[in-house]
Amino acid sequence: MNITARRISGSAFSAEDKLEVTFNSDNQSMASVVHTIELVSGVNVTHGGGGLAGDYLHYKAVERDADADGIIDYSDIEMSLVQESQGTSVIKVVCEAVTKAEADTFKTEYEAWAERKEVAIGLEEEFTEEAPTLTPTILKTGEITLEWSTDTFV
Fold first, then answer.
1. How far from 66 is each of 29, 60, 93, CA to CA, in Å?
2. 15, exposed or middle or buried, with CB in 10 Å at 0-12, 13-18, 19+?
3. Mean pLDDT over all residues of the chain?
4. 3-class secondary structure per residue, the chain
5. Under 8 Å CB-to-CB from 112, ≥6 apart: which residues?
6. How much is the pLDDT for 76?
7. The pTM is what?
């Protein structure tokens, strides 16, 4: 799996930029892919209409983007960015990805854990087994430089 991004609109004289973000899942069906940005340096940047760096947003909607089987194509999104003030920002686009196979395995493990817990509670036994966790794959693009400045009269 990998993620890449490129600027498709914006300029050095505007706070707004738009990125095309592509995600390659190696032909695996995905259960979820959420995106954020990582501020490497510079002026703060928001994404997706106000999300802060580190805030994960789901850029796809089931009612709009799913096929007849409910499967969402996460291969590309458009990400709107806004610099909070003039200056230069260096960012990376970050995604957390969970395959359908990983989600299905987690669901099965969690249901089995919950059943064991319920039995232990019913028998008034101490239950100390940790709940299973689902750990997404985290992917990052290379660095993207954004600039917002003003031109001078000559």
1. 12, 9, 23
2. middle
3. 94
4. CEEEEEEEEECCCCCEEEEEEEEECCCCCEEEEEEEEEEEEECCEEECCCECCCCCECCCCHHHHECCCCCECCCEEEEEEEECCCEEEEEEEEEEEEEHHHHHHHHHHHHHHHHHHHHHHHCCCCCCCCCCCCCCEEEECCCEEEEECCCCCC
5. none
6. 93
7. 0.88
Block residue for tokens 């089995």: 112
Instruction: For 49-76, write each residue's pLDDT tens digit.
Output: 999 999 999 999 888 888 887 788 899 9
For residue 147, the cross-strand partners are 88
Please tell me the total number of residues recorded for the chain in this structure.
154
Which domains, from first to last, does the chain contain? 2-99+135-148 (2.60.40.2410)
Single-letter amino acid, residue 65: D
Residue partners of 120: CB distance under 8 A and separation at least 6: 126, 127
Q: Nearest to residue 136, comparing CAs of 36, 51, 62?
A: 36
In the numeric block, the tokens 């994960």 are attached to 56
Report the distance separating Cα 51 and Cα 91, nearest Å: 14
